[in-house]
Write a structure and sequence with these properties.
The chain is mainly beta and 152 residues long. The protein is built from 1 helix and 9 strands. Strands 1-2-7 form a 3-stranded antiparallel sheet, with no helix packed on it. It has a 3-stranded antiparallel sheet with strand order 6-3-9, with no helix packed on it. The protein has a 3-stranded antiparallel sheet with strand order 5-4-8, with no helix packed on it.
Amino acid sequence: MKHLLVCFLGAFLISCTDRAPKPEPVVAEQSRPVYSTSSLVLAEPVPGKKLKISISTKDSSLYIVNCNEHIVVSVLTNNSTVPAWGGASNACLSQSIIIPRGSTLSFIVTLPDLETDTVYTARVGGIHQGPDVRSPQYAPELTLSNEFKLLP
C-alpha cells in the first residue's frame, strides 16, 4: 500500500509541475553582404592578402573574353587609372566564359605584393554584352569594384 501511495504522490507532483512552453527557435535575419557595389564586380578581401572577386548579372548574360579560362583582374589604388597589380594574359583567345542572367561567378585572386593599409579597387577586363569579341563591352564604371583594403 505504501508503494501505491508513493506512486500516486509522485504522479500528482509530476502533473503539477510548471510546464513552461518551449521557447520559439530564433530565426536569423537574411544575411546581407558586408560590401555592396552598383557595378557588375564585387571585391571582398579574405585573409592572406587574397581577394574574392564576384561578377554578377541580373538582366542579361555576361560574356568574358579570356585566355584558357583566365580572367584578367587589375587592382588599382584609390583614384588611379594605373594598376598597382595586374593579372596578365598572353592574348590567346578562348571561347567566352558565359555568366547566365541572374547568376554570379566568384573566384579568388592572391595579391602578395600589395600593402594592407592602402585603399584599392579591382577591375575585371573583357566583359562583353554578347558572345562575339567584337560585341560592345560594358562601361568601365560597371567593371570596377567597390573600395577595399587587403587583410593580412
